[in-house]
Design brief:
Strand 11 and strand 12 form a beta hairpin. The chain is 42% helix and 21% strand. The strands form three sheets. Strands 2, 3, 4, 5, 7, 8 and 9 form a seven-stranded mixed beta sheet that branches. A four-stranded antiparallel beta sheet has the order 11-12-10-13. The chain is of the alpha+beta class. The longest helix has 19 residues. 48% of the residues are buried.
Amino acid sequence: MATQSNDVQLGHIGPLLDSHPVDASAPCRIDFGGTLDISSFHYPLRHLAPSTVNIALDRRTTVSLRAASDDRIHVSSVGIASAAFNPSEAPYDHPLGLMFAVADYFGTSGVHIHIDSSSPPKSGLGGSSVAAVTLIAAFSKALMAMGKKGISRNRMVLLAHAIEQSVAGVPCGLQDQLAAAFGGVNAWTWPADPGLPPFAGNPLLAGKALRRLDRHLLVAYLGVTHISKDVNSTWVRQFISGNGRENWHEIVRLTQDFAGAIARWDMPAAADAMNRETAIRKAMTPQVLDDMGDRLAAAASEAGCGARFTGAGGGGCLWAIGAADAMATLKPVWEKLLSERATAGLLACGVDTHGVM
């Protein structure tokens, strides 16, 4: 075990980064059937074959590694105050704590980690998990520059998830890390067997169909941030206590319906499944949509489209899917509604086909 640990120990990498600066990037995501990727749900629901669908978006998070001016670990990110700590001394409940925890896993020092995200902060697009995957990819590149073995995408997902869950103190899902690592449009299933990998991917679209999907999507930022663990914790507590189990059974079925509709390019059916799933979640936790979110969702339904909050809702983003003509009708309606809030607006984005780079 000690040999394996040493394989990922970077040590003081300032001199290496002076000659080999490192950059990596990964996409965010929109999703359907989230929460089912949390083990609290997919283990007891295993008999129903739960899955989560996500679509990677080309709004990427970039992580740059540069030499620091001292032996500390420095982390800076747009919208968050920069911080620096000696190795293993950072508080992991800090706003940048996950990044420090990843750096400590690699036993590194003398590094400045700069994070630049093209998504709004706390927008429900998986930002912190994406940053963790991207940072691990950057450290993997540094390892290879030292002549060591790099880290596979599968291991990046597992490692990012394990570190995030360990410092979050609450159950975390896997879907954000998977979209970041692999990109594309996938239905992820959760085998729920300790002897097997914890996820399996089923690409729903490939090739030119991935780009065609852009015309069938809209993503809106509601102009207010969210904290996913608040809603997720409510759902976990409800589920564990036995409340609303039938709702989760139906969410499993609707996610399967949605995946099938995407695979056969039946956008009206996908929209119908989405609206039904959103209604169930809102009945369980009304705070997943604020007043503007309600109005946007109603407009989508009226236009024949589906609408759903991203992640656990409660602010952040709302996304819509539907036939191309229905989406063309919906877009100006959403633009007008979003104009009522200065911080809100449509996000220019498309499907990401590459994953982490």
